[in-house]
Amino acid sequence: MSEFDLIRRYFTRATPGALLGVGDDAALLQVSAGNVLAVSSDMLVCGTHFLPDADPFLLGHKTLAVNLSDMAAMGAAPRWAVLAIALPEADEAWLAQFSAGFFALAQQHGVELVGGDTTRGPLNLCVTIFGEVPAQQALRRSGAQVGDEIWVSGRLGDAALALAHLQGRIALPAAELAACLPALHQPQPRVALGLALRGIASSAIDISDGLLADLGHILDASQVGAQLDFAALPVSPVLNNYVSRPLARQCILSGGDDYELCFTVSAARHAELSAIAARLNLPLTRIGKIVAGRGCIVHDASGNPLNVEACGYDHFR
To answer: Are 156 and 260 contacting, i.e. CB atoms less than 8 angstroms apart?
Structure first.
């Protein structure tokens, strides 16, 4: 099978939302009137972001999901994507499952694959995603104000706990592992929440490298500080069983791979957040507040600062 046969068979779909999709030297895209283009890229590298024996269907899902999460954090409606993929070999069974997982999530969010590249090499997956958002409604990291509340969606730490098990740093019973693995292998990007937070959130970011690391980007961009209540952080019943262990605290605060949204809002907007949570059937939890100064302090149940050593994942540390 040639490179072009591979592209036609596994990665070519109709693209009615693009002026020109797969098959030429470049795609042609038309942004809707009044909107600006939001663009983001994420790379998944075998051995760094996933294990060599990763299920290809779930890997196809996650490859797009991590990019959709960036669109969610900007309040952007995802529209198009391009995929650059390096493959050790053209394994048709693997490609069929990978593309099925990718396109299942793409269809769910109305995303069209409009181009990309394939080459032989160590397994490497890179998506660039394009979305639309009204120019004045994009969610940014730089808008947090002193007095704002800090909120997160969903639950934190399950993905990191599952990874810790796979790496041999903890041994979870089979039932607990089964409950945590979906968070690691099949994250659910909060696109609908991002759209709903337009005009409500003062800042937002997706949690990919860990709560403290990603919240830290908001604090740096907004030039403010934060206080968090560790007891308020939303965790699953499984993770709650281990919450007294340092590893569990690390998973919650700095483990990463959550792909939930962390955002700030004025304290006057509780009713709107409650309505959004109910409409989306998605838990939203207040975890702290924005304060003057710089940095982030995490308080325990007694109000004492926690000693937090690692803030999040960094590829070069």
So the answer is: yes
Whole-angstrom Cα Rg for the chain: 20
Residue (of 86, 104, 123, 105) closest to 6 by Cα position: 86
Q: Determine the straight-line distance between the first and last CA of the chain, rounded to whole angstroms.
A: 40
Residue 144 has phi, psi (to 5 degrees) of -65, 140
The region that residue 157 occupies, defined by phi over 0 for left and psi between -120 and 50 for alpha, beta otherwise, is left
Burial of 101 (0-12, 13-18, 19+ CB in 10 A): buried
47-58 average pLDDT score: 90
- Closest of 151, 162, 150 to residue 251, by C-alpha: 162
- 127 Rama sector, left if φ>0, alpha if ψ -120 to 50, beta otherwise: beta
Q: Is the pTM of this model over 0.70?
A: yes
In the chain the domains, ranked by start, together with CATH numbers, are 3-134 (3.30.1330.10), 149-299 (3.90.650.10)
For residue 244, pLDDT beyond 90: no
- Tell me, what's the pLDDT at 101? 97
